[in-house]
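Lab channel / #folding
Pinned by the channel admin:
"Please post every new chain as: sequence first, then the structure tokens as a reply. Keep commentary short and put observations after the output so the thread stays searchable."

First post following the new format, from NK:
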Amino acid sequence: MAVLVVLLVGISVIFSFTAFGGGNPFVGSVFALVAAAPVLCLVCLAATRGRRGGAPRGKGVTVALRLTALAMVGAVGYGGYWVVFEPKASDKALSRVSDLEDGCNGNMARKYFTQAAPHTGPGPHPVAMFTVTESGSPQAAYPPADAPDYWSGAKLDPHRVQLIACLGSPDEGRFLADCKFTADSIKLYQGEYEVTVYEARTGQKLGAEHLSGSAKPACPGLVYLKQGAGQLHTSPEFADYQAVLRHYVEG
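Reply from TO:
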């Protein structure tokens, strides 16, 4: 039991430092208290027994440690979820829209950007849009040159961004073409996506929408695929983004 408690204390200390470093002092303080819980428990038991004129009984100490360890297991379990899935504050300097791509990190915890503008007031609410490449990495989705900059424009100041729209990995839609390459032939499908909208400043999820890729059977000249991937997917066109995101951006 003592070994388990020591292990949980160590994990709680790590989670506490991670939370403070990630810009969440409340969670960091909670894990600091969890790490100190066994010592506080023993101090309370000793004080109670001292008032009663005796040393703490071994059975009472064991029960207290077991209850403390049980509570710590629950807290450490939440800590694991928080470390992996909850968004963390980013300290990255922002100079271009693509610097916000960590707001769409699907493998580890997403980032939010305290330097970004608050999501408030009437539209437009500038958005940074990110698609996902066939290799699985996020990539900024820029609009046509004649579109307003607040639609993820290349010249948009990232500090003005209020929203981040993240395109998920594609599902297969209808078959479009066989794309011929030098060494192989790869099937091209219309991509079917979920686009999720987050508040840039806090990481809060605001909503999710369905979005289809282009229906045009246009094969790329060059493509990088994930290992084991055997198909290509079309990406949405800018008009498709506008159709599903307009009420977030201009509403």
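NK: The helical segments are 2-21, 25-51, 58-85, 238-249.
TO: also worth noting, Residues 81 and 177 are 42 Å apart (CA to CA).
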